[in-house]
Each structure stands twice: as C-alpha cells, then as structure tokens.
C-alpha cells in the first residue's frame, strides 16, 4: 500500500502536537514522520505493530506516545519492553536533552530499533537486547516508561531494580483504567491520569507510580 501524501500526515501530526501543547518544531516533526515511514516499511516483514496504515500510526503511535511527554522526570529514561520503539522513540525526538535506553528481548525488534535510531540520527538513544530480569545497568534510571507491556505488579517487580538506587518514577501506559491491577498494588504513591490523545477515540490512562527504596 503506498504511503498517503506526506502533507496529509504532516498536517495530522502538526495538529495533534498543537493540541498537546508541545513545542516541537518542523525538524523534529519531520523526524517523527520519518519514523512512521520506517515503521511502515519494516512492518511488512517484521510484523512490528498491528497498525498498518500510516494515517492511523500518527494518533495511535506518535500522539499517544507524546501524550506522556510532560510527565517525564530526570535525565536517564528507560523504555521497558520497547517493542517497535513506543513510546521511547517519539519521546526521544521530543526530548533530545534526555538520554533514552530502549530495552527489548526480541532480537528482530531490536534490529529494527537500531536501524531506526541510526537512520533518524538519534544520538540520545541506545538499544539493548536483553531480558529485563537480567539487565542491570549502572547507574540505574531516573524514569521508566512502558506501553502495552505487562500487568502493573509485574512492571513494578521488573522496574525497581532498574531504577537509580531503587527510587524513581514509573510511567505505565494503559487503555481503560486498570482497576483490578491497581487493587493489587501497595506502593507509596500511585496516580492514575486520564490521557486525552488528539484524533484517538478510545480510553487511555497513565499510571504514574513513584517508587521509594525498600
């Protein structure tokens, strides 16, 4: 399927970024659209995402990922179970001053991630192919993001050893409010934030969990 006109995608992205109140200039918007082009091309072979139409990728992947940009904290960010680079790559484009690590255990997905990082010129991103249980960076991270990765209790057990000195922020993206998952948690601070993603007519929530050392 040929890509729709670039100007249509660009207009959709610019409108969504404006609604999110993000100050992303033309150069960074162009880089985000390059990512959509790469994702579309690689998706034909690698099956990276169920979303096939680039026009849908703008709200479902780009704007959805960027909707949590205001909640990031610290300099070192880990995208846990990054998959096709979501939300890590859009956030890295939006925050060039921060350092991002994209972690995934799937070799095919990390192969795509490394190619995307190289072609997009993202010098603030590194890609790691490893299981979260075995990955122990030094120093740890200030903030961890996840999107469609696992249940909240599993996310917390994996995230805590990856944070700097066992403390920091976990941003877990969910669809509907995860009531049953929240009932199983007893962390010091949990905040569930409804997300309004432009051009996306579905429920989206951000579970913000602040972890303190045990």
Structure, explained:
The protein has a single domain (6-211), classed as Rossmann fold (3-Layer(aba) Sandwich), CATH 3.40.50. The chain contains 7 helices and 7 strands, in the order αααβαβαββαβαββ. Helix 5 links the parallel strand 2 (99-104) and strand 3. It has a 7-stranded mixed beta sheet, with helices on both faces. The protein is globular, with a radius of gyration of 16 Å. The protein has 214 residues and is an alpha/beta fold.
Name the CATH architecture: 3-Layer(aba) Sandwich
How many helices in DSSP terms? Answer: 7
Write down how many β-strands occur, each being a DSSP E stretch of 2 or more residues.
7
Strand content: 15-25%
Average residue-wise pLDDT:
92
Percent range for helical residues?
Answer: 25-40%
Radius of gyration: 16 Å
| Structural class by SSE content | alpha/beta
CATH topology grouping: Rossmann fold
Largest beta-sheet characterization: 7 strands, mixed
Helix and strand element order = HHHEHEHEEHEHEE
CATH secondary-structure class: Alpha Beta
Query: Segments where pLDDT lies below 50 for 5+ residues?
Result: none
Number of domains: 1
End-to-end separation = 52 Å
CATH superfamily: Vaccinia Virus protein VP39
Order of the strands making up the biggest sheet: 3-2-1-4-5-7-6
């Amino acid at each position: 399927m040929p890509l729709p006109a670039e100007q249509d995608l660009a207009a959709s992205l610019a409108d969504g970024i404006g609604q999110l109140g993000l100050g992303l200039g033309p150069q960074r918007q162009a880089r985000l659209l390059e990512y959509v082009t790469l994702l579309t091309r690689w998706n034909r072979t690698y099956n990276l995402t169920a979303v096939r139409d680039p026009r849908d990728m703008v709200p479902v992947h780009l704007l959805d990922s960027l909707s949590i940009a205001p909640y990031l904290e610290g300099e070192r960010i880990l995208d846990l179970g990054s998959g096709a680079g979501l939300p890590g790559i859009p956030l890295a484009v939006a925050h060039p001053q921060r350092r991002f690590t994209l972690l995934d255990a799937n070799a095919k997905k990390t192969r795509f991630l490394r190619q995307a990082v190289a072609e997009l010129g993202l010098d603030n991103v590194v890609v790691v192919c490893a299981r979260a249980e075995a990955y122990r960076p030094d120093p740890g991270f200030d903030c961890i993001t996840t999107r469609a990765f696992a249940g909240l209790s599993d996310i917390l057990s994996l995230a805590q050893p990856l944070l700097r000195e066992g403390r920091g922020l976990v941003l877990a993206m969910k669809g509907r409010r995860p009531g049953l998952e929240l009932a199983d948690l007893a962390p010091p601070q949990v905040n569930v934030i409804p997300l309004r993603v432009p051009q996306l007519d579905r429920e989206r929530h951000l579970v913000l969990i602040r972890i303190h050392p045990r």
